[in-house]
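Lab notebook page, bench 4
Experiment: in silico fold of construct C2
Operator: M.H.
Input chain length: 112 residues
Purpose: comparison with the prior construct
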Amino acid sequence: ACDVLLDETDRLLATFNALLRISRIETGRQHSAFAPADLAAVMHDVLELYEPLAEEKGVVLDGSLSAVTRFCDRDLLFQAFANILDNAIKFTPAGGRVNVALLADSGRAVIT
């Protein structure tokens, strides 16, 4: 029970820190965590992290990831992608499929 509480506390603290970083970025006070990031590698890490949860629930994860690099905060993107994938798995019925795609389109990174 204590381990569960500690994990939840760590998750809440990470979320709070992410919100604080977003606020600082929006006000122009923090761009120190910005660096070129391989978005396909970020998405791959998220897919790898959630694969066991998807398998446990009977959901197939399918990723089609093109090489795309952007100047960004990798940790914030990882958390955003993780939140979206977590919800997709949570709300996909057993036997379903979650398709994730990353591609470059007219100079933009497109994630579906």
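Observations: The chain is about 55% helix and 25% strand. The helical segments are 2-26, 39-57, 74-91.
Next step: discuss at group meeting.
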